[in-house]
Write a structure and sequence with these properties.
Length: 162
C-alpha cells in the first residue's frame, strides 16, 4: 500500500474514532434506547467512496475494535459487528449498482446496520420479540442515514484523493 494512502486511511480512522467519542459525550435523546446518529459513519462512507470497499471495511472494523478495547464489552462488539457486516455489504452493493446517491447509500447502510443488530439480538437473546423494535429503528435509520449521507457527501466532494 502506498504511504500516502496509508496516511489517508489512518487519518480517516482517527476521524471516525473522534466522531464516535464526540457522539458518546453529546446527549442525543431520541426517546428510544440505543438509537445513535452514527457520526463515525461519515468516515466509513467517505472511505467507501474515496478509498474503496477494503478500506471502508478496515475503517469500520478497526474503529469497532479500538472502541471495544477502550469502552466496550463483548456483547456490544457482537452487535456492532453484525450491524457493520450487513451495512457495509448493502452499501457496497448499492454503490456498485449506481442507482442511489451517496445519501441513498448511507440510508441503506443505516437501515442495514439496524437490521444486522436486530438479527444479532434475536440470536443472542434467543427470541424474536425484539423484531417489533425494527420499525422504530427503520424510521430513525432513515433520518440518521440522510444526515450522515449529506455530511459524508459534503466531505467526499471536498476531499479529493489523487
Amino acid at each position: 500500500m502506498k504511504i500516502k494512502k496509508m496516511m489517508i486511511l489512518a487519518q480517516t480512522l482517527a476521524i471516525a474514532l473522534v466522531l464516535a467519542y464526540v457522539e458518546s459525550i453529546i446527549p442525543f435523546n431520541f426517546s428510544i434506547p440505543g438509537i445513535k446518529v452514527g457520526l463515525a459513519n461519515i468516515a466509513v462512507v467517505f472511505a467507501l467512496y474515496r478509498l474503496g470497499i477494503a478500506d471502508a471495511i478496515a475503517v469500520s472494523f478497526l474503529r469497532m475494535l479500538v472502541l471495544f478495547m477502550m469502552f466496550g464489552n463483548g456483547v456490544s462488539l457482537l452487535y456492532s459487528l453484525a450491524g457493520a457486516i450487513v451495512s457495509l455489504t448493502l452499501m457496497f452493493i448499492f454503490k456498485k449498482l449506481n442507482v442511489f446517491s451517496i445519501v441513498g447509500v448511507s440510508v441503506i447502510g443505516a437501515v442495514g446496520h439496524n437490521a444486522g443488530q436486530i438479527i444479532a439480538a434475536c440470536i443472542l437473546l434467543e427470541t424474536t420479540v425484539v423484531r417489533y423494535y425494527f420499525p422504530a429503528l427503520v424510521i430513525t435509520g432513515v433520518i440518521t442515514g440522510i444526515i450522515i449521507g449529506i455530511l459524508a457527501g459534503v466531505v467526499t466532494d471536498r476531499i479529493k484523493i489523487s
